[in-house]
Amino acid sequence: MIKKDSSNILTIQDLHASINGTEILKGIDFTVRSGEIHAIMGLNGSGKSTLAKVLAGHSAYEVTQGSVLFDDIDLLALPPEERARAGLFLAFQYPIEIPGVANTQFLRLAYNTVQTRRGKEELDPLEFDDFVREKMKMLDMKPDFLDRSVNEGFSGGEKKRNEVLQMALLEPKLSILDETDSGLDIDALKIVAQGVNQIANQNNAMIVVTHYQRLLDYIVPDYVHVMQSGRIVMTGGKELALELETHGYDWISANKQSLAGVSA
Amino acid sequence: MSAVLQSLVNQPYKHGFVTEIESDIAPKGLNEDIIRLISAKKNEPEWLLAFRLKAYQKWLTMTAPKWQNVHFPQIDFQDISYYSAPKPKTKLASMDEVDPELLRTFEKLGVPMHERAALAGVAVDVIFDSVSVATTYKQKLAEVGIIFCSISEAVHNHPELVQQYLGTVVPVGDNYFAALNSAVFTDGSFCFIPKGVKCPMDLSTYFRINTEGSGQFERTLIIAEEGASVSYLEGCTAPRFDTNQLHAAVVELVALDNADIKYSTVQNWYAGDEKGVGGIFNFVTKRGLAKGVNSRISWTQVETGSAITWKYPSCILRGDNSVGEFYSVAVTNNYQQADTGTKMIHLGKNTRSTIVSKGISAGHSNSSYRGLVRVAPTAENARNYSQCDSMLIGDQCGAHTFPYIQVQNSSATVEHEASTSKIGEDQLFYFSQRGIDAEEAVSMIINGFCKDVFQQLPMEFAVEATKLLSFKLEGSVG
Ligand SMILES: Nc1ncnc2c1ncn2[C@@H]1O[C@H](COP(=O)(O)OP(=O)(O)O)[C@@H](O)[C@H]1O
Ligand SMILES: [Mg+2]
């Protein structure tokens, strides 16, 4: 059994997961407490998105070992929609297009589903329209976006903003942002970061997956984890991101030993 | 749907007002004597008997079509009884006696409580007097000179109209099943919209008295005179059970100059169980003749039922500038087979046609679109646009498209677009990550996919069709 600190939102222990029989996650351990922002960095193919999707419950992945507690519930026992309703949110690296389904309809259904779960009032289409437009202003989004099909024909940047908008609507307890900064120009990046910072508070937490230090200028992490071949090989404070920026990932291999054991 | 009809539709509906006639059933088998018997029982004029006999003679020379992409056991036409007088249904004493599966279905479809009882055949004493609903409805129509009754009634009360138009759009020997229908049809609907009249409400079979017992060989004839217009609704979304396995209906529409006929169907016959046992074979010939200049025939169908559907609502665009439209959603699940589509025959100048076909296949089912666009040498500047989209749910089902295009006039423009898509695991994951479960996700995707067709349906029908589709596809994604 896992001992749980009362402020722990996510407790991952020895998590192994595979896809089509190939092991991708090879033992992940870390803990996220409320109010914290964690950054996960690492080269392409190191398993960052896999970790995100396994936490969200994608059926293509099989968890072969380990445990994950979300608050004090066994996250891995829940189907993906229950995880979402419990307050886990994933901003996808590659948001999928859903032709024919209007964004506003999709957003309202998602919003009302989560609201109902929290014992709160649903919003009717008119009320929801006011509510969502307010949030869209914060992210500098055009109103016509509501009538378009979910992600269909969106530019990379529009897709990412749509993810952040959904995060803002659903007010999750734990948000995982998978490379939300990729494909954004610097202005868009600032807007998205601003949005994220408005959502972050002492009762929720964020895991920000990124390649680049530049996002972390705007979203300041409490911890930075570095992933390599399905493991977290190094954990440090926000200065670790700067070290990586200067020295590159090769530097990790050389310094792994000395830094291992820094608490997460 | 107009507010008036809306309020009428929302009234309770009772089955009990069908005139009781002594029940009798003809011996099984098909021959001239049986046809004479049907005609005599119905007290028909000589010309109609001649019509039936001519059809029968044609039928004897024909064989069942084999080209459609469906498979079914050979039908023994001598093992069917071709005449059964309408008889009142045996009523159940309470809702407790109704098949729970049926009740669950009604609930899912949102069929109002009082209608559930009526549809399930429960002898509930509904306080409401349904005769007065039908009477009010008929009075409103009569005021503007519209005739809307059963075809048997029309044969007696308006024989000259029936004789003038019956079989002019679908000739007695048109195809195997149409010939059979012409020989033995028992009942169906008749609508006549006189010159210049815009029908003030949608005409719904829901209100046609004596629909019970129109049986497996239904015959419908709708005529819109010059400048007239009408919207006709066939069927209802509540499931229809029937012990007759073969259904072969014929529908004929005639639109004169500047007339407009819109025909909408929601078909939900019993489809057989999840293993493919039982279910109706639905072989229908539906055809509209856009006879006059600027006339318009528009078919909208939502096909969800039947074990086998074989149906091609078609338009013959004879009048110059006439318009033909076909909007279709066909859903197949489990072991259902559907072979459906349309024919647009362009004869007049500047004729235009639009085809929008959406096929959805789930389970082990197969769905085919088969469409013909023919532009005759006389059809100067004809235009057609066809769009055929298929959606697959799971990987055991199939979708097929068979477009036939025959253009004999070089000024024609014919466009055909087709697409096939699949509801993917990653799409469903995206929904579920936002808290939306798979069934709701599929229903949203499907409704988006069918939007172009649903928006052609009268408002209330569209709402019902949406629910029906979700219901039909329930459990098809895991
Ligand atoms: N369907 C799959 N089958 C086998 N291997 C896969 C599959 N999907 C991803 N992988 C592998 O898993 C590893 C981790 O991928 P991913 O989690 O997307 O990395 P990151 O997000 O860090 O770039 C990569 O080596 C990738 O090739
Ligand atoms: Mg990734």
Tags for this model:
heterodimer; A: 264 residues; alpha/beta; Rossmann fold; six-stranded mixed sheet; four-stranded antiparallel sheet; 37% helix; 28% strand; B: alpha/beta; eight-stranded parallel sheet; 12 helices; 19 strands; binds adenosine-5'-diphosphate; binds magnesium ion
Topology at a glance:
The complex is a heterodimer of chains A (264) and B (478).
Chain A: E1 8-19, E2 22-33, E3 37-41, H1 48-56, E4 61-70, E5 73-74, H2 80-85, E6 88-91, E7 98-102, H3 103-117, H4 125-138, E8 149-150, H5 156-170, E9 174-178, H6 186-199, E10 205-209, H7 213-218, E11 223-228, E12 231-236, H8 239-247, H9 250-259
Parallel strand pairs in A: 3-10, 3-11, 6-9, 9-10
Antiparallel strand pairs in A: 1-2, 1-4, 4-5, 7-8, 11-12
Helix pairs in contact in A: 5-6
Chain B: H1 3-9, H2 32-41, H3 46-60, H4 100-109, H5 113-120, H6 130-143, E1 147-150, H7 151-157, H8 159-165, H9 176-184, E2 189-193, E3 203-204, E4 219-224, E5 229-234, E6 246-247, E7 250-255, E8 260-267, E9 281-290, E10 296-303, E11 308-311, E12 314-317, E13 323-332, E14 337-346, E15 352-361, E16 366-375, E17 383-392, E18 398-407, E19 413-422, H10 425-433, H11 438-454, H12 459-472
Parallel strand pairs in B: 2-4, 3-5, 4-7, 5-8, 6-9, 7-9, 8-10, 9-11, 9-12, 10-13, 11-14, 12-14, 13-15, 14-16, 15-17, 16-18, 17-19
Antiparallel strand pairs in B: 1-2
The complex binds adenosine-5'-diphosphate (ADP) and magnesium ion (MG).
Kindly describe this structure:
The complex is a heterodimer of chains A (264) and B (478). Chain A has nine helices and twelve strands. Chain A has 264 residues and is α/β, with parallel strands linked by helices. Chain A has a domain at 8-94 and 174-262: P-loop containing nucleotide triphosphate hydrolases (Rossmann fold, 3-Layer(aba) Sandwich). Chain A has a six-stranded mixed β-sheet with strand order 6-9-10-3-11-12, with helices on both faces. The longest helix of chain A has 15 residues, at 103-117. With 478 residues, chain B is α/β, with parallel strands linked by helices. Chain B has twelve helices and 19 strands. In chain B, strands 1, 2, 4, 6, 7, 9, 11, 12, 14, 16 and 18 form an eleven-stranded mixed β-sheet that branches. In chain B, strands 3-5-8-10-13-15-17-19 form an eight-stranded parallel β-sheet, covered by helices on one side. Chain B is globular. Bound molecules: adenosine-5'-diphosphate (ADP) and magnesium ion (MG).
